[in-house]
Records
---
Amino acid sequence: MPETLVKTIGTALTTRGLTLQQRLSFVLQSLIPRTRATVMNPWAEQGSIFNRLTAEDLHAVIESAKGGDPRDLFALYRDIVLSDTHLQSEFNKRKLAILGDPLSVKPRDKTNADDKLAAKAVQIAIDTYRAPNPEDITSCPWLRACSHLLDGVLWPVAVLEKVFKPSSIPGLRFEFGELAIVPENLITFQSGPQDVTGKLKIRDTDANGYILGTTRMLDTSRYMVHRGHLLSSHDTWGGPMRSLLFWKLFATQGRDWWARFLERYGSPFLLGKYDQSDDDSRAILERAFSYAVKIGGLVVSRNTEVEIMQAAAQQSGDAFEKFIEIANKEISKLVVGQTLSSGQRSGSFGDAGRAKNEEGVRQDIRVFDAMMLGQTIEDQLIAQFLRINGLPGRVKILWGGESPEDAASLGTLLVSLSQAGLQVSDDAVEVISERIGFSVQKAAPAIPGGGMTGLPLSLLPLATALEAHEAQDDIARAAAAEVARAFRGSLAPIRRLIALSRSPQELEQSIRAFYSDYDPRRQAQLIEEALIAYAANGAAGVTAGRG
């Protein structure tokens, strides 16, 4: 049990004049974080080592992280993302695929009143949350907080601090006070030379954000931890981003080597020729070359031969371009799961098929990221929010829906089911809403107005709208009072079908067509009741209507 918790319980138990319930309430409320514990100072950031990195330095950085101190490794990750336009663009694509979709809070069980109330409370709390200090880069609005957690798809771990405050929302005790970034340089897995546990810890800072020599265990009531990847190795091994380190090292060194090559051989250079036995001409030519830089030209004799030579930089440039292209493709495959979105397409049939397959991979990654981020928020933020507010319900966090192609396929499937005389159940409507990203509901059966628009034209009797209204009025006024009472609401059109049908067979066909989306057993029950009503009242009503 943490030492702070022991002290809190001891204080509560020795407080006189309080009931047991009040003491327990005191303990629980004291465990709710209400102030920030971590402070970020940009001047306390780990220095950059990327500009002087060698292969030996990179191995040393990896070994230091494996030993429990990942500060240099995380600083290297930071510098790589900030300095690489391609990696930064691909990383942004990965995040925007989630953050660009609308967020919705749904009850875990839509029939459970507690779950529905909890979903409404969470949605209100998210919508009303505002970062208390916009000038502080670590004090995040909701989307920026989610963006920081999504660093955990490449970083081994991303940590966010959560603070609650007394709520101004009616019915809630506490609401979100602040969501704050925990800088990576404060993450460590060592509390000292003798620490061999390898557990995640947070470095302490002073009031100005400078790192102290002490650490504290990560408190799940205060911090959120997101691991958005599938690697099962320990955080100290570097996460998915580690696989890009050597690609970036060689690409950066290759860029430096290419710049040196161009500096030495990229510009044209002069080649002079002289007679081997004429030393005077050679001396004149050498002096002319030395003055060429100052005067911008050459002064030589008429018989002296001078040529301007161009280095074969094109072939070297092609090799450099291909290497950078390969490095960027490896980055794209890791970050977004495909390469076509970052390169040119030739438009051939093969590329079209490949694009479809790679888009499927990208959608799988998007769905996975949304599920992982939603689970982290549900388990480490929303569950605590509901608990401290005394709400017993459960919710689920959803981002957007399926891709347009998958949504179109789902729509085609639903149309095919309807044409086959099948319909989705009420339970399936919620699943469909989650898949397409917005709420839908089953359409009510079409109720005819001026005409029987719900029936196929082949089943409509040859009667005018005026005759139909007259027939319905006659039934209501004369012998069909029982029919009017029996068929109400969505079954009201059956009264008109009885009035317009010339035979029991025609009535049965009309009911089957009009209520085609009903369960077959329900259809049979309606037909049976309608035929009984037709036998008792139909002839009189029809006769009166047509008389």
Note: Residues 260 and 313 are 12 Å apart (CA to CA).
---
Amino acid sequence: MKYIIMFLISFSLFSAELRVEAPGKVGVGEIFDIKVKVSSDEKPEINFNLENLEQVAKSEGGYSSNITVINGRTQRRDEYIFNYSFRPLKKGRALIKNIHTVVKGKTDLHNEVEIEVVKAVQSDKNIFIRADVSKKDLYKNEQIKLDYNLYYKVEVSNYNILAFPKLEGFLKRFRKEAQKKEMVKIGGEKYMKILLYSSVLYTDKSKAIIDPMIAQVIYPVRGGADPFRGFGFGFRERRKKNYASSEVEISSKDLPIEGRDKSFTGLVGKHTFTLSVNKEKVLVNEPIEIKFSVSGPGNLESYQAPDFLNNEKFEKFESDSKLQMNHDLTATKTFTYTFLPKFNHDQKAKNLKFSFFNPETKSYEFSEVKFPAIIVRGGAVRSNGEKVSTINPIKFDFDRNILGPYIKSNKKSLFSSIHKSINVILMLLSVIFFLLIFFDKKTFLNFLENRRFKNLSGKNFNYANVYRYLDGMNEKSENARLKVKNSELSSDAKMYFLTLLDSHSLAKYSKNKKKIDVTFNKKYFNEVEGIINKSLNNEDSSES
């Protein structure tokens, strides 16, 4: 490659002198270097625009200093060297234009550099870089394995990657693999191969280009004038040369319509699905955790799992996903959901169907996972938009043991008769007790509320109990947060209870495990007591 030295004089009288060493002719895709030397009083800043060129690398080549004496005055002039690597994009004319240097805030404009670009030159058969892909014609979102390899059949001392591929139009998943050397055969000739870069790609474009990787390869050569060459221990110099892989065009086609239904996940390749639920019998406001995993070669980065409990009986508290790479070019994506049941509910078991497209069989295949039945108890059930009590009616059975399971009854024994008598007495006391409740319901309910209020300040000061306690306010809102917001509580009390709910929920269920310390404050709980008592008084007055 012949280089032409050009002196580019600026249009300013007191300017930085700029000299460029550049080739006059290059081939399409060929990596070439230019050297820029700038003489100035201070290190310059160089800027330019490119036409039909892509900058690959830049480095500083140092500087030299020159001191001259003119008319008794000493002048110092430094020469700074900059090295650039470029790659021409297409046949025709390439320009480095609008070249300007900035020294001490002063800008000097220089002439442009023109380079002729001819058809691609013959590649080096001793050293080259190649983008090796598993497939060039495939279905959209089908997996492509891409490896950039350095091939050589002469000695190579070292290499440096100058430019990684952009891979625009692809979703890429980088793969870290050992850069081992191995011997391969290409066109009947033996080469050593080193892996430079590896990734897994997906595209939904009909046409996409895998762009080049550019690397500088350092290799030793013997000098022709070496006097010791014939004795086997001559000296060798190290040369540097830039290499780029060729572009690779990928074509992808649409998936067939026939055989596709609403269960299609959008995944291409054979996949497996698993689902687990931590509890199948829970109380209201007790968290349910669901884990759903999918494994396979598909584009799992873009895959979104469905909502498994998408109804008003359950509040979706949090969802999270994690992608794990496997060694066999597959990946596993695991979704974790946290739901809080709000009402008594019987969630029926069901089979969930998922389908994917298998490019090997060119057909859609199906997989099923079982979603178990979930029973929620301990709260209120909704009927015609209103809440009703879930307390089961009491049935008295003289043949059953009221004293408990530890006292066994034998109908033929004397103890059995005594035992039945005690049961009768206990039954009568229960009737009297419920009569007292009927005639003084307010006193009894206040007793229960005050006892529950007292228990909250101890070990039971947790999210679920606070949630149930606030749920006692006679508000039509469906959850405790809305009850607090819509209540007659003071603004300070509302802020306290909202922070309290967030404190326990964030600490227990959030992926950040953030905890806000909120202590029991009797003042604000007394406000809630006042609202509950007011509600009870209104009920008594309406009944009378």
Note: The first helix runs from residue 414 to 439.
---
Amino acid sequence: MKDGFIKCAAATTDIRVADTDYNTENIIKAVNDAAKTGIKLIVFPELCITGYTCGDLFLQKTLLDGAKESLIKIAGDTKNLDIITVVGLPYAVNQKLYNCAAVINGGHIKGLVPKLNIPNYSEFYETRHFTAGAGRAEYVNINGEEVPFGANILFKTDACADFVLAVEICEDLWTALPPSTNHTAAGATVIANLSASNEVIAKDEYRELLVRSQSARLYCGYIYSSAGYGESTTDLVFSGDNIVAENGTILARSRRFRNECVYSELDLERLVSERKKSNTYMVSTNDDYIIVNLDITPTETKLTRYVEKQPFVPSDNKKREKRSEDILSIQSMGLKKRLDHTKASTAVVGVSGGLDSTLALLVTVRAFDSLSLDRKNIIAVTMPCFGTTDRTYNNAVNFANSLGVTLKEINIKDAVNQHFKDIEQNPNEYDVTYENSQARERTQILMDIANKSSGLVIGTGDMSELALGWATYNGDHMSMYGVNAGVPKTLIRYLVDYEANRTNNETLKKTLRDILDTPVSPELLPPENGKISQKTEHIVGPYELHDFFLYHLMRFGSTPGKILRLAETAFDGEYDREVILAWLKVFCRRFFVQQFKRSCLPDGPKVGSVALSPRGDWRMPSDASYKIWAKELERL
């Protein structure tokens, strides 16, 4: 349970209708198997001890007594297992029969939760047998122990502060106000749903939609276990559709029409982080709820869940294409509004032959086209200097020409050398002054051209550079509108690739392909043998790692230790622990000490859930200390 991870499972076992002994044996075996793999919570289907399709047999005392005996046996036979088990059974209280879920832990029946919404439409006839449960809990005696009975029960454990379990049953989820809404408002982070959802055409899609949306709305983990093979097929077929979901994402799902156990690790810290960020998500103490403590041993959960190594980039091609179009539309629409509002006659973009300036110019062209403005009023300025290579220079020229914009070439070597004389800088000393003088000269030129042409300077810097402070203050750091400010470096590559795939202009396509193949570099140091000598990722580290760090730090407030653990999983076989840790230290240090650059960023559009605008998502003091983060990094 380290870092808030807990392994949870949804299981469907083979059953025989009304054969409680057979069903119980299979449940106990599944619990034992689950405990051996480190699963801490296992959820079985609705009425799994008897079978959901018993019909009027539910009114037979023999079946009800058998179900109760089975419940007691499951508790006794699993008492030495470090696991929480949730099973379904019919249970009579005060001369009424209820469709219940029993929570079992450490040899004890810790709670009995009745179904609140009893369906009696279409193929369902549950009100013939069952009474709707109540929220407020009372106590019933089972095997000599007082057990809370009611829907409003929260199950907690000292082993994991963020683990709070609540239960709802099948139809409860399908109603206008599912009980899980109240449960999570009272503090539940995990919802177990015992279900017997029969299969008809397309119902699986709607079932998934319900589970995904409920877990997203409630910022919770959702364990959905459904009846499967073995139920009566007199009129219905059950597919055993089991789902483990977290905050709108399906972590694991069984194959339908097979009785399977699926599992994954819920990230409870992540869920709690989301709740803390959302001030419209209300959690309050509710006196109607009973708190029941569970006994679980704290362990370090081995991660089996998939960890995306490029969290900003969808892995699915179709989703990535849609994401690319959406982002380009957001960027260009933002710029369109700014151009229209300021009545700018031109837009000025510095083009280097690199990815960032390429994307900025592509976005500017989109904005101009949407305003029906002449592309010739886009001024693309290439400013070769000491580090410019023929490859990037030619790409910048070919790129601008293929788009039909106005290209200006201004060689800044003489201006920078004069500046070196003015400030007494040794031109053979390749220090930060040598590099930044070039960046600031370029920005000065762009600003003055914009003034001269009644235009706006369009910023090219991306979010990854802003996170690392990899920008020259009042150099490329500054613009009149930063279209790339919300786009991380790993995503920019895919946006440019998307535009390359779309165009019918072969010259543009070829140029974009070569830009994509060019190493990322500011080109501020002289080339070696005509090739780029200064590669950014050799200096500050791989952007795929930094974007990973940025996402988990910003999106979920993860600790350095947890980020390292996730990165080891995501980049297994690509980077070893020492390399990841070394660059994580670089990231954390730079992220903190370079905040002053982000505190005065130009305007720019937010495009995703992570953004660094000081006016929006990230309001951090420029002089905040990162000492406690550094201390944790040194312990890793």
Note: The first helix runs from residue 20 to 36.
